[in-house]
């Protein structure tokens, strides 16, 4: 009987944890029912219409400090994603940031296939995966102190694109995914000492900037978002390995789901402005398309007379 009570309690605890939020039965459309902030007006992710972004050259370039120093890393399956915790001294500054922000962790959002997976979209295009480097305001001292303060967090987002060959810089991290397929937050696996610059594009320069939120409950609107245009390359085989991780969520038969489509759909921009630190070539391309279209229309009109 005691065992049965314990089992019932464990089941209850397990279910209540699994039911809190997720990407399956308790998916993003239901988050605001429990976490009211998720229904507010400055939410993330968003679709970035590059044509509409406001050029703000004064943003300048972002400075990444310590990203070139090899650092001890651990990776874990937290039931929603693969998260790499960082305990070194990596900072970002400049690029329009009011002060230095310190890196705490990075994690990934991916799709059930290569046609989707990223949280942010560029001109309504999704990418197969997006990585988020989560930094907190250094003067606030910790991630916990920063998650309820406006502009307390600065997150860098990078998109992945499929390439024919493996990305060697990701080989160790992806090989360690096999050790964390089970959802178990305490299952920390060490990665080889690696400089974090190996996990980002070689020279990230061009970015979009807007004010938004955490993309998971409780959706706090405290994030200075920086979404870069330079992408990270990954093979289809490497991409598929992420989909082997098991979720904390279970279906009606108490079977665990795989972690897949762990991205929140894009949220309305409302009155926010998206800035860019560069003159968007996509905007130029769009102008050329419109201009060429008009030109051919005029020509065909003239020729028809
Ligand atoms: Zn994220």
TrEMBL record:
Parts of the chain that traverse the membrane: 285-303
Q: Which UniProt keywords apply?
A: Glycoprotein, Lyase, Membrane, Metal-binding, Signal, Transmembrane, Transmembrane helix, Zinc
Question: What EC numbers are recorded for this enzyme?
Answer: 4.2.1.1
Origin, by domain of life? Eukaryota
Instruction: Using the record's annotation, list all stretches that form the Alpha-carbonic anhydrase domain.
Output: 19-278
Oxidoreductase found in the keyword field: no
Is Membrane given among the entry's keywords?
yes
Enzyme class comes to lyase
Task: Show which residues constitute the signal peptide.
Answer: 1-18
Query: Which Pfam families does this entry report, sorted A to Z?
Result: Carb_anhydrase (PF00194)
**Gene Ontology molecular function, alphabetical:** carbonate dehydratase activity; zinc ion binding
Coiled coil stretches, renumbered = none
Please give the catalytic activity noted in the UniProt record.
Answer: hydrogencarbonate + H(+) = CO2 + H2O
A cellular-component GO term for this protein: plasma membrane
Names of the cofactor(s): Zn(2+)
Query: According to its UniProt record, which protein family does this protein belong to?
Result: Belongs to the alpha-carbonic anhydrase family.
Q: What does this protein do?
A: Reversible hydration of carbon dioxide.
Question: What is the name of this protein?
Answer: Carbonic anhydrase
């Amino acid at each position: 009987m005691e065992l049965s009570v314990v089992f019932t309690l464990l089941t209850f605890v397990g279910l209540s944890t699994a039911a809190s939020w997720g990407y399956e039965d308790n998916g993003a459309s239901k988050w605001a029912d429990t976490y009211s902030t998720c229904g507010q007006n400055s939410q993330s992710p968003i679709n970035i219409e590059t044509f509409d972004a406001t050029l703000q050259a004064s943003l300048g370039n972002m400075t990444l400090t310590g990203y070139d120093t090899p650092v001890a890393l651990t990776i874990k399956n937290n039931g929603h994603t693969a998260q790499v915790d960082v305990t070194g001294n990596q900072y970002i500054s400049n690029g329009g940031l009011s002060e230095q922000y310190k890196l705490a962790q990075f994690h990934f959002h991916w799709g059930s296939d290569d046609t989707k997976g990223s949280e942010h979209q560029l001109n309504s295009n999704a990418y197969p995966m997006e990585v988020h480097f989560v930094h907190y305001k250094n003067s606030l001292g910790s991630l916990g102190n920063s998650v309820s303060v406006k502009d307390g967090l600065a997150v860098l987002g990078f998109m992945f694109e499929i390439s024919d060959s493996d990305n060697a810089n990701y080989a160790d991290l992806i090989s360690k995914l096999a050790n964390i397929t089970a959802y178990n937050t305490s299952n920390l696996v060490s990665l080889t000492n690696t400089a974090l610059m190996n996990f980002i594009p070689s020279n990230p320069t061009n970015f979009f900037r807007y004010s938004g939120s955490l993309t998971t409950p409780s959706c706090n609107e405290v994030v200075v978002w920086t979404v870069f245009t330079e992408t990270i390359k990954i093979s289809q085989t490497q991409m598929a390995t992420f989909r082997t991780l098991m979720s904390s969520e279970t279906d009606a038969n108490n079977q665990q789901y795989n972690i897949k489509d762990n991205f929140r759909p894009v949220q309305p921009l409302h009155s926010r402005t998206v800035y860019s630190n560069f003159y968007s070539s996509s905007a130029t391309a769009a102008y050329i398309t419109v201009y060429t279209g008009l030109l051919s229309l005029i020509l065909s009109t003239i020729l028809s007379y």
